[in-house]
Amino acid sequence: MTGAFPPDPAQAGSLSGLKVLDLSRVLAAPWATQILGDLGAEVLKIEQPGNGDDTRGWGPPFLEDGSARPDAAYYFCANRNKRSVAIDFSRPEGAALVRRLAADADILVENFRTGGLARYGLDAASLLAAHPRLIYCSITGFGQTGPYAARGGYDFLIQGMSGLMSITGRPEGEPGEGPMKVGLPVSDLFTGLYATVSILAALNHRSRSGEGQHIDCALLDSQVALLVNQAMNYLVGGAVPRRLGNAHPNVVPYRDFAASDDYILVACGSDSQFRALCSLLGRDDLATDPRFGTNAGRNRDRRSLEVELARSIAPWRAADLLAAMEKAGVPGGPINSVDQVLEDPQIVAREMLRVMRRDDGTNVQVIAFPARLSRSPASYRLAPPRLGQDTRAVLAAELGLAADEIDRLLAAGVVAMADPHGRDETKEPAA
């Protein structure tokens, strides 16, 4: 992929000059490749002609752009700063094209089932043998080894299997009790983040040694690693963690409480913060109670304490109490809805919403990359592409294919490209 799309020097990010071949779809792996793209890497997203990334159809809602098959909102969360190239690599000619693109790639990311790409010569063993500097990252549900390696992995299943759902939800004996998944596909997202960190580590290793490598990322492994304090509580203390609703297993008080007009969050991480909360509530008796003087005591007698705090918080208006807590140095906050947080003045000030324009002129609003790099910030160069919109340009510039050869591949259905109305075009073979 030499030099086809030179970076704009004004937008050159930390990873500018790196080439990423993205053979992934849905969320975990596209999340990783979007991060690489945000930080300046050139990302070529290889998609199946006809449907492309599964999430293009995961609506409603869809971005209404006048096309016959508009893309779903889900697709836009993980696919900016990429070029879409529609190649059917289940066909020998298509697989050969992808192998040629891989020859000049620094990084390849895929999330097919274990062994699924070997039949096309696109597996790690084949490509690393031919290109030993390649960093090849595989993201699967259960990894490349072990008794579950051949299984498909889905975020919902991983949340259950990993133990996450066993500690999420209302406690036993409360209305609505039972295990609950998190409201976001966190197992996918965590794995995408671990994959990105691992890719960057592999790049550093290659800079020292000249060696590429195969990275094996599993959703289950990643989610188990993120059991963090709950798993350590079990490993050290021996008690199996249980569902606590919005309460914290270690820190008290650290949960939601009902004010007179809304719920608020109280998060006292120290004894001094607890005493400050008691003072502003007019409950110095709780601060001086020997049962509650330390966090360990508050944890042991959390039920008694939380009942008293709930009684004292209930008469307050939420906004008034939060303002008083802020003044007193007691951590707390509201429970925002999605629309409220996206309009929050802090989010606005941090420019966490960006507007990008697709190649057909349609605007799409996206959520920004969260870290602020002072010398090489993230950039927003390419809106999430239409299916196959870059096929012709990439095949010509990256592989040097002539226009008549690309037309032949289009006619044969090996590749496809987007038409001006947002559909992907695969020409029918001539009679």
What's this, in brief?
36% of the residues lie in helices and 14% in strands. It is of the alpha/beta class and 431 residues long.
Give an overview in words.
- The protein has helices spanning 28-38, 73-76, 92-103, 124-130, 155-161, 186-209, 219-225, 228-237, 271-280, 284-288, 295-300, 302-313, 318-328, 338-342, 345-349, 391-399, 403-412; strands at residues 19-23, 42-47, 83-87, 107-110, 135-140, 213-218, 254-258, 263-267, 332-334, 353-357, 363-367, 415-418, 424-425.
- The chain is an alpha/beta fold.
- The chain folds into two domains: 9-225 and 354-425, Rossmann fold (3-Layer(aba) Sandwich); 254-341, formyl-coa transferase, domain 3, CATH 3.30.1540.
- The protein has an eight-stranded mixed sheet, with helices on both faces. The chain has a three-stranded antiparallel sheet with strand order 7-8-9, with helices on one face. Strands 10-11 form a two-stranded antiparallel ribbon.
- A hairpin with a 4-residue loop joins strand 7 (254-258) and strand 8.
- It is elongated, with a radius of gyration of 26 Å.
